Amino acid sequence: MVEEAEELRSLQQPARITTFQDDGKAAGSGRSCGSTGRWWNQLLKGCSPRRRLPILAWIRRYDGEDALSDLIAGITLGLTMIPQSIAYATIAGLPSQYGLYAAFMGSLVYVFCGTVREVSIGPTSLMSLLTLEYTAGRPHQYVIVLAFASGLVELAMGAFRLGFLVCFISVPVTSAFTSATALIIIGAQLGNLLGLPRLAGSDSGFFSTVWSILQRLRQTAFGDAALGFGCMAVLVALQHLPRLVPAARSRPLHRLLWYVSLARNALVVLFSTLLAHYLSTARGGVPFRLSGAVEPGIPTFEWPVRGVTVNNTTISFLEITTELGSGLLLVPLVAVLANVAIAKAFATDGVVDATQELIALGLCNVIGSCFRAMPTTGAFTRSAVSHASGVRTPMSGLYSALLTLLALGVLTPYFYYIPRATLAAVLITAVASMLDLAIVRRLPRPPASLADLFAWSVCFAVCLVRGVEVGLLCGMAVSLLEPLRHWVWPRADCTTVRGPPLTYRRVRPNLGLLYPGVDRLRSVVLAEARHCPPLPIVLDCERVVALDHSAVRSLRELADEVERLGATLMLQNVQPTWRQALQLHDTDHGLVFRSPEGNVPSVAQDPQVEQVVTQAR
């Protein structure tokens, strides 16, 4: 099975840089009408149906060969999606049909709005666990509101092109988050695997859940344990089934075994359900716990902006969103991270319309919530299945949706007989590959750093102790300390430029001059001015990429301090747009600061220094 840890590959989107030319005049005023026209044309182009409904671009070229390939891929994907969706609903503490609702609506909407043919939208282990974190012990309406609000946030991120926000989640934090998620899911499913009854407050944390299970090991139900471990053994064996017959020896047989391996979840669920149905008619009854009744069919359209009544008390929509708290931002952020990363992994040449993918994901959640679907995102495992099955277009999602609809309409009475131990076995084997503990050995090695290892450790530990939502936020905060360090303590290369008869001291900052690092640069420059008098100090701004108001003011004050020490501060390689803000004067000797009275200070009286100034210029 393809590793689900790929679901959360961090995004590396290049920043869009817009340059402005400022010569002190209203240079752009004469082109305001043209700029407005171009902006309006871009807005209309971005909102065109052909751009926002990608199906209009490829449906005209759709032929019989495409339909056959998509049909095979869709059926294969559906056989994988249905048992996974049922199992993921149990992680979120929901009845099985909620996972199928999400799979049906996600697959159907993405056919019209998706841009990457391999991407499969539906419930995932990550979304299920986050849903459980924010809705555990609450009515199911909270889950629907969470899906609706997440969709709105994703649509807003797409409209304002905020997909770059996921870049703040580094690879070590992503790895720690997915590994901790896998452990939490495995710990939560151990109770179902061993047939232990669910206790109130069992969602309080990973360690408390495992400790509770260890204390109740004597209560293990032999039937559930035997079935659960047996299903896990069969799943692992079927996963490696294609290796028995290499493609070079017999390609048709290898292909057949490959399809059997892909459908292993469906096969295990099917045979265990048939076994439970058969034993239900026997005298001894079923020796393991079953899933229970499942509501059949697709629910009618229902606008999710409504309240819920709990104990004769009506909780409004706004009150529900207030209780969901940070989940309204964290759930869509993780969903966007997973979906766009998967789209980039499978897209042609790695080019992805991130805006359209955000809009597609938002519509999947907004429309799905109107049919009682749980939050959804892309799943790497199912996307890999589509890719390996030879998918041609997003139309394969339609066939998967129809297969899911068939399961909801016809098979739901039989979902009652699905053993809980079987679903636990499916989940444990599915998320076991998300454990990425090998990264711990790689992080301390160059070019990584101990800061990455520290971010991984903090995220992993907090996720297990306080929950995945707090752990992810802590991991992001810790990982941001490393780039922040370079702004607070910027490095500056100090060298003496010698060339008879010219000699001067050059200070070259390696990053931007923003307010956190101004004091550090000031200390470096003053130290050079004290230790190397009467050499002039040349501040080389070639590598400076940013400048703020605090830095502008501090540089002017720094020039005065250097002058009081008997030296001269000059600037080199200053961008033209910054010269006016810095109030620099271009003299025959170089770039110097104007005095408050508007006069140009004397740069130097020594002829050698004057020659140095001219060279620095």
Question: What is the topology?
Answer:
Layout: H1 32-46, H2 49-52, H3 55-58, H4 64-91, H5 96-113, E1 121-122, H6 125-135, H7 140-159, H8 171-194, H9 206-215, H10 222-239, H11 251-262, H12 264-280, E2 308-310, E3 313-315, H13 317-324, H14 327-346, H15 354-369, E4 377-378, H16 380-388, H17 396-415, H18 420-431, H19 439-442, H20 450-466, H21 468-479, H22 481-488, E5 492-499, E6 502-509, H23 518-531, E7 537-540, H24 549-564, E8 569-572, H25 576-582, E9 584-587, E10 590-593, H26 607-616
Helix pairs in contact: 4-5, 4-6, 4-12, 4-16, 4-17, 4-18, 5-15, 5-17, 6-14, 7-13, 7-14, 7-15, 8-9, 8-18, 8-20, 8-21, 10-12, 10-18, 14-15, 20-21, 23-24
Secondary-structure class: alpha/beta
Helical content class: 55-70%
Distance between the termini: 62 Å
Radius of gyration: 31 Å
The total count of helices amounts to 26
Strand content: 5-15%
Query: Tell me, what's the shape?
Result: elongated
